[in-house]
Design brief:
The complex is a heterotrimer of chains A (432), B (255) and C (305). Chain B has 255 residues and is α/β, with parallel strands linked by helices. Chain B is 28% helix and 32% strand. Chain B starts with a strand and ends with a helix. Classes of the chains: A alpha/beta (432), B alpha/beta (255), C alpha/beta (305). Strand 11 of chain B pairs antiparallel with strand 11 of chain C, so a sheet runs across the interface. Bound molecules: flavin-adenine dinucleotide (2 copies) and adenosine monophosphate (AMP). Adenosine monophosphate (AMP) binds next to helix 1, strand 6, helix 3 and strand 8 of chain B.
Amino acid sequence: MSQAEDKFDAIIVGAGPAGSACAYTLAKAGKNVLVIERGDSPGSKNVTGGRIYTYALEMLEPGIFAEAALERRVTHEQIMLLAGQRAITVDFHQPGFNAEDQAPVSFTVLRAVFDEWLAGKAEEMGAIVACGIKVDRLIEEEGRIAGVVAGEDEMYADVVIAADGVNSFMAQEAGLIQDISAKTMGVGVKEVIELPAQTISERFNLQADEGAARMLLGCTEGIHGGGFLYTNKQSISLGCVFTPEEVAQHKRSVHEIFQDLKMHPAIAPLIAGGETIEYSAHLVSEAGVRGIHPKLHREGFLMIGDAAGFVINTGYSIRGIDLAIVSGIAAANAIIAAAENIASVGPNYIQELNRLKLLPAMKAADGYFEVLETPWIYDKIPNLANDIMENLFRISGEVPLRMKDNVLGAIKANGLTVWQLAKLGIKGVRSL
Amino acid sequence: MSQVIACYKWVADEADIRINADLSIDLSKAKGKISDYDKNAIEAAIQAAAVLGGKAVGVTFGTSDAKPSLKDALSRGLDEVCYIKAQEASQADGAATARALAAAIKKLENVSLIICAEGASDTYSRQTAPRIGAFLDLPVVTSVSKMELTGNTLTAVRKLDDCLQTVKVDLPAVVAVLPEINPAPIPGLKAVLAAGKKPVHELKAADLGVDLSPLSTISEIKGYIMDRKNIIFNEGDLAEQVKALVAALRKEGVL
Amino acid sequence: MFCKVAGIFVYSDQADIAREIIGFARLNGRQSVVLTLGEKDAQALQNAGADKIIAIKGESEMIENYAQAIAVMLKDESAELFAVGATPRGRDLAARVAGYLDCAMVSDIAAAGFEGDQIVCTRMMYGGAVQQTEKLSGLSVITIPPGKFATAQGEASILSLELPADNRVSLMETAPIVKEGVDLSKAEKVVCVGMALDKAEDLQIARDLADVMGAELGCTRSIAEERHWLPVESYIGISGAVIKPKLYLSMGVSGQIQHVYGIRDAGLIVAIDTNEKAPIFKAADYGIVGDLYQVVPMLTEALKK
Ligand SMILES: Cc1cc2nc3c(=O)[nH]c(=O)nc-3n(C[C@H](O)[C@H](O)[C@H](O)COP(=O)(O)OP(=O)(O)OC[C@H]3O[C@@H](n4cnc5c(N)ncnc54)[C@H](O)[C@@H]3O)c2cc1C
Ligand SMILES: Cc1cc2nc3c(=O)[nH]c(=O)nc-3n(C[C@H](O)[C@H](O)[C@H](O)COP(=O)(O)OP(=O)(O)OC[C@H]3O[C@@H](n4cnc5c(N)ncnc54)[C@H](O)[C@@H]3O)c2cc1C
Ligand SMILES: Nc1ncnc2c1ncn2[C@@H]1O[C@H](COP(=O)(O)O)[C@@H](O)[C@H]1O
């Protein structure tokens, strides 16, 4: 093969949502794009909780969501506070999230299918997707990134795009990030539990293709983290995210805590009779805008999606897929706009990230980080809420406590003060 | 130019087969793959073609589901693939399969060697190579663990139950190779990219002029379920788990 | 005509299997005509209950090379079935005969019988995950693995028959495979190793355990065929040994269906593997999720007590 045949306009490392969205946009603009994915098929190694916000797909191609490999339209937003055997569930139902004539707000999603579909769309546009191949190194020439090395093969491109996910090895290779500290990382474990569609609809009170997204607090034995539950068409995604360094000090393993969650009286009936068809574990950035790498590009090199640190963790949801897609589009736009002027790709990219509101959205969500840093929200708050409920509903022959005494007593019993809660509340309000 | 044929089959991955409570089987979750040992057959064909200075050509008989196999097979180093795309493949037995493959191979010129794997991972019938040989009336060598080509002569080591046989045959011939014939390498990036540019010849059932209906009638298909205790010792540390295992085995009276 | 009625023609390069196939014919009220290559094999089967033995004489020492001639004979004799012992030679011959006849064939039957004129066979698919029953009409071919049918008794007459051989494949050399391993199919306890072992010396860990347990050592196909760390007869599974010990204990065996097929009849299955999702745990009675390099020495010690 001659050098010319070995050269692409762009090489994208990783066929996750970031890589495929970028490839799609570039190929659609007639660029010669190669996507390299180490998994045997796109998505085979990827882990996600389970929901995607549809606006990002609309940005990619209006209406494309209708043919996307998605699960259920989320119309039930739920929060569950667990404490011991007890649980409070808040269910916000907005059928309008599911309106016929417009794109729904979000869908539940299974990545193995979704990623394969999206990569397929990029291929249809003319991108080449090479699976089962791991990129080992970057090629640097005269101070710029000029290509990649996979096994014994070298391949060149005007721009190499790191879409290789969290802890991006490509970005480390390019010298743009150091090893990521465990502090800003969560480790997620997840099972996909298969159940008949009908059973899921009944258990979650769902109509037709409606779905529920549930955030769980109080299931991590006080470890910084939380759980999630998403209803797919014929399965339930159930998982937890933990801070690894706290897990290391904890007496029980993530696996054990997760198994307990599955046995919780409020969870067990939801998954009863189901068969676990998939088990996975993966890292996720928890730092929000603080986790974005200070440098997202150098000459001939861009970082997108998780590789760049684009994840918003609000506690009640993790957003990464949509940001991955948006950043992929931003990178593609930057390359298309730069035309022959490769040096302008990087600055263009940052501009696009702002124009497409990705960076502003992440900045706006920064307050959550501090709220989530509050150690006692992971056990004491759910316990407090459940205590208050219990006092409220437990009727005996005694004179009932006044509501104020109930609440104050419960706060005290949980080792908290009104002042602490007020501060958290202020932080919380500010972060919103 | 002489052509070396590698017959390969696109099969459902047996690891993904689900067995329902009524023992019916569910293939809907099963991914496709090139039958494991056919990867060795493909590699053997590539090596043989290199020695003979010819082309290595894949031949596969499958339904439209087998399409993803083309890129995979070509990225393993085959020069071309001949894809017999026919719905009949889903019902084919050993007879129909061999008829289809033999008819397609007959259409190719200068075929010097036809290589199959020992057995496909779905049927594991180990029929196809000898049957193709009979159809084309070519000599057949099965259970081949080593082969060497000198000029027009193939020397092969056959691994049988009780002995290793060294046999000699002049080409053209049909060979069924064991997986230990070679370690089938994993394709690299350039090979995968090159695959996209290689030719695929598609044949339809009608092009073959043979009957592709099976000779045997399937009357029942059911899954096999193992009924075992499935007790995992996970309480306490490893030492305690080992202790619990020993206690259980003593109780079972198997020690 | 060798048979007065349509009958079963039998061949196996292993006399034991040939005897069982004759038993199968008897069981189904069929006459059996046994083919052998040469007189010696014929005499060995003389008391096996066949109706007739045909000792083939010809220019080749390889039975496979008579496939076409046998196909012609089966047709001429209006044979009902050609039943062949499922060994590498047998499968080759059987499939070639089926090819020349262009007739139905079922390989390695799990069960076989007759329903009127039809032959009903069950066989494994997908490495043993699926059982398929097929019906064959007219002259058909099947291969039968050992141990499926009871043998029969009775004297048969031997007839010597010259057949043309296809000499295009010529036999240059034969090197017997000396069976170094034990016959696992008769072992009471089996310790089985898989690809988790880093190097051949580490087999000692398994040997030590096998010694205290009084077990034989078995392995997966990859260990025997790719790494050649243990003799071929030590590997268990659909293409290896099918065993039925009281106790089978595996270490670092993932438990792919083709392997598990070989241990289905084990009394008790115990698995040690680092991957809790390994399929072997689904097939096991007892399991420990852990590193075999830690677990096995502990187990050996515990059993010494
Ligand atoms: C437990 C958990 C729950 C989550 N829940 C949600 C949720 O509900 N909603 C949401 O929006 N986000 C969620 N996220 C975040 C979301 O999954 C990620 O932000 C998203 O996957 C990022 O996409 P990406 O394309 O950047 O990277 P990835 O999806 O990680 O894709 C990277 C790809 O690169 C490939 N790759 C890596 N290295 C190489 C290499 N050297 N060579 C070739 N290929 C390589 C990988 O195989 C992979 O396919 C969750 C994350 C976790 C861990
Ligand atoms: C047509 C066909 C026929 C076949 N016939 C047979 C057959 O008859 N017999 C047979 O065995 N195979 C057969 N196979 C192959 C079979 O599919 C599997 O590939 C093979 O059995 C895998 O062998 P393994 O379990 O040793 O290796 P692997 O699948 O690689 O498993 C190794 C296991 O070791 C575990 N492990 C790794 N490190 C450690 C550690 N330190 N401690 C504990 N556990 C560890 C891993 O988690 C894994 O589960 C056949 C395949 C085909 C396609
Ligand atoms: N449908 C098919 N298309 C191409 N090759 C096949 C097909 N079926 C079987 N083969 C070849 O024949 C070998 C043995 O298959 P089997 O006889 O079914 O065990 C396979 O490993 C392939 O090499």
